[in-house]
Amino acid sequence: MKDNPTITVTLKAAATLDGKIATATGNSKWITGPAARQKGHELRQENDAVLVGINTVLADDPELTVRGIENGSSPIRIILDSRARIPVQSRVFQNDGVPVVIVVGNQAASREWPELTDLTILTAPTKTPQIKWVLAEIGKLGIKSLLVEGGSLIHASFFKSKSVGRLALFLAPKVIGGQEALSWCGNMSVDLIEDAQNLEITSVSAIGQDWFISATIRQQ
Ligand SMILES: NC(=O)c1ccc[n+]([C@@H]2O[C@H](COP(=O)([O-])OP(=O)(O)OC[C@H]3O[C@@H](n4cnc5c(N)ncnc54)[C@H](OP(=O)(O)O)[C@@H]3O)[C@@H](O)[C@H]2O)c1
User: Which atom of ligand 1 is nearest to the CA of 32?
Assistant: First the structure.
């Protein structure tokens, strides 16, 4: 049983065959091909909200919108940003009427926020927002399904919180290597194989030049 019964959480990542989501210099565009990226938009469309960490916003400036789907509607955008560092010009703040939620920590400095029709700032009771707390708060906003799009630290935090139901992993036929290049679940810090997170692969499919692995999480 996962500890969070109300929100279905899916982790999504696009990785190389050696599990990397960016090079050591932070370059990540594009690991997968157009078909896989389009499937990524479908996953967004299927979820009430999409969440990323602040480092992903700073590195990639993603829109986090649904594109290329007729009558597709974009999910609520959620950013975990303990120190309230997100730049006002970030693309997640585009005024498209889709709600945006920024989660900051209790030691974040006060600052100016962009003029947006639907912007919510949630202040966690801790320096770094804890995943369980975040899920409880966004549950109050009516969110029932959440797509977590990284990066590495955020995926690890979600795994550690035992709140994840499913993994949606795109694997590209590329290898990056490098000790400094991030893997999709960076600081899980499992010392023994017997303590590894176990998953059950439910489907593997070719998607363009890439592979798509769907798996459910076995909570131990
Ligand atoms: N290929 C892909 O699928 C993919 C997807 C996304 C990102 N990326 C790449 O991944 C890299 C960024 O990944 P990253 O691991 O460095 O950073 P990240 O996971 O995007 O963001 C981590 C940051 O979020 C903040 N945070 C707030 N609450 C947190 C919590 N409970 N747990 C963890 N972090 C929390 C922390 O910064 P503060 O303390 O300042 O709040 C933390 O350093 C970029 O290079 C990006 O291009 C690749």
Answer: 1
